[in-house]
Amino acid sequence: MNKQTRRNFLKTSLYTGATVAWTAKSWAQVKGANDTLRCATVGFRGRGNSHIGSINNMQKREQGVKLAALCDVDSKVMEAGSKKHGVKGYQDIREMLEKEKLDVVTVATPNHWHTLASIWAIQAGADVYVEKPVSHNVWEGRQLVNAARKYKKIVQTGTQARSSKCIQDAVKWVQAGNLGKIKVSRGLCYKRRPSIGDIADTKEHPREVDYNLWLGPAPKKPLTRDRLHYDWHWMWDYGNGDLGNQGIHQMDIARWFLGEMELSPKVWSVGGRLGYKDDGETANTQIIYHEYETAPLIFEVRGLGDVKGSGKRPTYRGGSVAVYVECEKGWAAIRNYGAVQVYNNDDKMIKEFKGGGDHFGNFIQAVRTRNPKDLNAEILEGHLSSALCHTGNISYRVGKKDKTSNIKDFVDKKYEAASDAFNRMVEHLVDKNEVDLKATPLTLGPVLTMDTKTETFPNHIAANKLTTREYREPFVVPEIKI
Description:
Layout: H1 3-15, E1 37-42, H2 48-60, E2 65-71, H3 75-85, E3 88-90, H4 93-99, E4 104-107, H5 111-123, E5 127-130, H6 138-150, E6 155-157, H7 165-175, E7 182-190, H8 211-215, H9 247-258, E8 266-272, E9 285-291, E10 297-302, E11 321-327, E12 330-334, E13 339-344, E14 349-354, H10 359-369, H11 379-397, E15 400-402, H12 404-414, H13 419-432, E16 442-444, E17 448-449, H14 461-465
Parallel strand pairs: 1-2, 1-4, 2-3, 4-5, 5-6, 7-10
Antiparallel strand pairs: 7-11, 8-9, 8-16, 8-17, 9-10, 11-12, 12-13, 13-14, 15-16
Helix pairs in contact: 1-4, 5-6, 6-11, 7-9, 9-11, 12-13
């Protein structure tokens, strides 16, 4: 990539909002096994520090990886990181991509920036490691997959469980039929999430934050929550709720066991933001039902404590953040990324798989070999699992409030596999957390039918609109055609 091309990129993206038109490095131009890969991390107030740690550890072990630059819209974070690690810091990713010659870019921004930052980095000639979810909506996730294909780039999703040997072995064992047919693949995200506060007025964003850059592709709106950082997870413009926060990891594992490589043909959701009133918009209690031919994928989210006023997480079968693959002859439990237990139908453990893995190391290895098949979590896997979270949220967002008895009737008659999950959810809300479901009813989303080839909801206008968003120039996710 020549200097003039980089300069043109900065000018067009900054002033006109034009689609980036870099020509990425060809396969023949990539660095060899003995060359040093220059890396940069975008967004490192939180998760990005783990990226930096992985890069620095590989550099210390002389594995041909070097931290070359850092980028964060928070000048205080950026300057501290730059000083600590002895590299150039940038607030604007466009300036960093224009000035630095980078082989690898890792992305750990808020969700609404994941796809755009990744595509810009790809078009600048870099391979990318992007945190989960890889997208803020279904459409842009597919554009990221297309960008990886078009520009022949190595793109890894930050779903670390994919590199855990124990889960890899368990998936193969279950898919080989050792427990018979899969009946349900169930994911859980039971994490207590307290109220984020209910403020009457808009808040001033921190002076050190370039708020326009922070908003990026999202609408230009004032800050309407008490804290800029982290609580964006619970606002639709920027986050995807706990389903797209912690839950994406377990959604990915649940789909992995099923072996499905398309989005579900049908999806519905039920839930609500219950137990408190705050500035959050996403559901804190939710069930998502993906109707796959192999078996249903059922996902459960709970954001309230085990009982009212408790700081403890609720549990199910010994886990709070877990996946349970329920089969004809027993079930497998994935409660962490280091071990998988297998039980018979009498709940007696009959087998255990152990062993973790190095997810970032797997990425760097694939960067060296230039073979996307060497990746444990190639971007298509990340897109599909992220989009399963998005489609579940879409059903919820276009749903309507209804009586608990009506919803129970719907579930029991048509979706027996979800009946137990629904009954446990109601018990958790009403009996354990004293939520009045008459005063604050649950929201039942429609059963949405997806065209899995186009990844759209052709028969539901409102739902289909939510598969993408209106982008704010110049922060427009480009349509990538291949």
